[in-house]
Amino acid sequence: MPQSDQHSDSLPPVWNIRAPRCREFTNRSDTLEDLHQSLLDDHICILAPPQAEMPGIGLSTLALEYAYTHASDYQVVWWMDAEHLSSMCIEFTQLGKALDMVDQKDDNRFFSIDRIKRRLEQHQGWLLIFDNVPDPS
After folding, report:
1. Which of 9, 10, 32, 90 is the most exposed place for a label (fewest CB within 10 A)?
2. Digitized pLDDT (tens) for each residue of the chain, 137 residues in all
């Protein structure tokens, strides 16, 4: 698995990940493949510390590496800070703008979130990563 950063032309058309690829992420291909298979089978995967304890590599790093490794499998890859509801609303609004679904001056974030969720449900080829979720249940 190559460890260099992807070139911008190999990233999905809608991509907001600003963090660079972690060069220290090695020997985890089985974990990445398990994650990929889980997403293919169930279309959802929750990484929680008891299920994915990996010394030295956190869950955010695993999600980041997955996004870079499987970037070509998706048309949309969007990283969301999910620690607070307000930050998630902002992230969804930014995603809506990137998808040309939300007017640049639209202040009705909850309406926009509902529209974005419906649109994503109607299409395949998207990956949303919710980072720092306080309670994944």
Report:
1. 9
2. 233 344 444 788 999 999 999 887 777 788 889 899 988 887 777 776 554 455 555 888 889 999 999 999 999 999 999 889 899 888 988 898 888 886 666 556 556 788 888 888 898 899 999 988 887 76
Long-range Cβ pairs for the range 116-120 (8 Å, 24+): 116/92, 120/76
Q: What does DSSP assign to residue 102?
A: S
Query: What sign does the dihedral 81-15-97-42 (CA atoms) show?
Result: negative
3-state DSSP assignment of residue 46: coil
Neighbours of 88 (CB within 10 A): 17
